[in-house]
Amino acid sequence: MPNLFAMCFEGTLAPSFDLRCLERGRKPPDGWGIGYYPGGEPSASVLKEPAPASGSIRSELVKAWDHLASSIFVIHIRTATWGQNSDANTQPFSRSYGQRDWLIGHSGSLRERLIVEGRFEPVGSTDTELIFCDLLGRFEENGWKSIGSCDLERLRTELDSLNEHGTLSIVMSDGSDLLVYADAHDEGGLYLAHLLPPFGDKLAFGDDELTVDLTKRGEINRKGVAVSSSPLPRLDGKPMEWTRVPPGHLMVVRQGAVHHDFAVSPDAPKPKNRTLRAVQPSPQRAEPRTYAVSHRTVYRYRVPVERSSHLLKLTPVFDRLQRLREHTLELKLDGAHFEGRQIDFDDVFGNRARRLIIEQPYEQLEVESRSVVELLDTDPLEFKPLHARRAIPLVWMPWQREMMAPYLLPPELPETQLQELADYAMTFVERNDYDLIGTVLDMNRSIYREYKYVQGATSVATTAFQVYVDRRGVCQDFTNLFICLARLLGVPARYSCGYVYTGPKAENTAQSEASHAWVELYLPEVGWKGFDPTNGVLTQTEHVRVAHGRSYVDATPTSGTIYVGGEGETLEVSVRVEPLAER
User: Which domains can be identified in the chain, with CATH numbers?
Assistant: First the structure.
């Protein structure tokens, strides 16, 4: 049974906590308590019960009470009495500091009593409360008003010094962040698990003493992190991966994700197979690259088409970051070159387009585009040293908002779905202290890490909300979700279509064998910047831009209308992107 347990979610969730150790006929623990932040408020609530009786009312409350909703939970179950068995000696403890309530849970004991000086004084006689008061005193002494504002490297040093007095595995929260520290001497220890949607009909885990059910009150998509003094298996028998937090590690969990992770010391060897979070490096400066691109599309019909019109957007962009050296577009009807009515123009989004009208029967239409493109976007974050920090919400001048209106309007979805997506978008904002660049980079990485690339699982009609719920799709789906989230935050976003070079041995080579989609965001005083959530990268010298617009409809490479005939259509598409040596 874990005596210390905590969870942190992106947004609020109302789990069911079943304290099975209080079932009738079993020996109850010496005490238990749960601390949480109702509705995400900075004020904490604590339910605790020293010397509980079997089947206590409070234990039934945390099992069935819908109002037990929070983004952070701290739970402690005491199996040995320290001092008088009372509320004052039952964890978790709460104290007010910095215009917020703080919570702490501690697993272990000290070998000697701490002498605590300052305005934070313990009420009871537990080691945990002494540690709590000492830590808050250190926060006050250093002028730290929150976990997010403190010097984490210095705090880790402070915790190391406290750890010399005895066992120190703790979780502490200020309502925004959950701080986790594992005992440096590997006494007791803590385990961490990532809770990633979709959870399905049921996600419950626990043992004979404590069961946590995340879906009992209805399925909801909330990514989370669980920390426990002992790993808890899923009740349905499915695997649940718990990773032991290395001794002496200090971690900060924010909005359901590991935000910071500090080892014992910079020179300490990293334990094998102990990776707690993948670190996505910032894009490195690249050299300009040149590609030869071929895009061949073949339509075949069982019944001949007698009259049709088509719109082609297959000419790569030519601007300061991408140069179009060569381009040809060849059309064939039943193997013969087409010389009929066609016109080239720039559409309202600035895409180079070709309109053609075919008024002769055909059974096969072949469209082949060949281009040579030089990519010059070698450093997509080169603006950062000179760019003033931008915070969300963004403020646009009236004429800017008017010009960006097509890229600020989210898709038409039920209001309840848009509200949930807006709440989801805000978790990225809060996790990154409202910083614009940090938010969009986190959003890009998170979609890449947490959503599965599954071909055939979605269609053109799949909505952003469906992708959010199912956590799977293809590049078009991830792009649509990213666009929706960005627009809900007031960040202009557009759909970009083109090609990506993945390399001959890349796992996602299939993406380079068809057109690819990604997002472009308009950043103040920076301009349009590309983000590829399918691959978790910023567009650089591997992405060839062809067309963009509000959605796929505006940027689709080939589209058209058949007026007469054309039954039994089949489609064949092949794309090749090959690097060329500089000329």
Answer: 4-262 (3.60.20.10), 289-376+558-580 (2.60.40.2250), 398-547 (3.10.620.30)
